[in-house]
């Protein structure tokens, strides 16, 4: 099973594009925060993790219409790793393909 569930805020506005065939694709960057307690002291820190998201079709269009930088969302999807060549080096990039996204703030709900 390949399933990811995340809740966080968008780090940037949604980047909506069209493929050569006219299919909408939205790229987003999500930040999740986790509070980390230290066993040896009373201090705690927040660990931030950055996630690349991609949504397709009507989901992509809806995200672009209603979401913006700072929007709080809950995402369900699956991990995908792509590889490409850049300056002669093979680069791997992992992203989350969005299956379902819930807008968690009233101003972004539809």
Describe the structure.
A hairpin with a 5-residue loop joins strand 2 (15-18) and strand 3 (24-37). This protein has one domain: Nucleic acid-binding proteins (OB fold (Dihydrolipoamide Acetyltransferase, E2P), Beta Barrel). It contains 1 helix and 6 strands. It has a 5-stranded mixed barrel. It is globular and about 55 Å long. With 110 residues, it is mainly beta.
How many β-strand runs?
Answer: 6
CATH topology: OB fold (Dihydrolipoamide Acetyltransferase, E2P)
Structural class: mainly beta
CATH secondary-structure class: Mainly Beta
Q: Please, what is the CATH homologous superfamily?
A: Nucleic acid-binding proteins
Helical fraction: under 10%
Q: Mind describing the biggest β-sheet?
A: 5 strands, mixed, barrel
What descriptors fit this protein?
9% helix, mainly beta, OB fold (Dihydrolipoamide Acetyltransferase, E2P)
Concise account of the structure shown:
The protein is built from one helix and six strands; from the N terminus they run ββββαββ. It is mainly beta.
């Amino acid at each position: 099973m390949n399933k990811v569930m995340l809740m966080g805020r968008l780090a940037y506005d949604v980047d909506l594009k069209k493929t050569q065939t006219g299919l909408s694709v939205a790229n987003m960057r999500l930040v999740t925060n986790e509070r980390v307690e230290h066993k040896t002291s009373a201090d705690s820190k927040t660990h931030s993790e950055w996630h690349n998201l991609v949504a397709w079709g009507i989901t992509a269009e809806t995200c672009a219409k209603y979401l913006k930088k700072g929007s709080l969302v809950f995402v369900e999807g699956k991990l995908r790793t792509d590889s490409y060549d850049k300056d002669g080096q093979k680069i791997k990039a992992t992203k989350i393909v969005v299956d379902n996204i819930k807008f968690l703030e009233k101003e972004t709900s539809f």
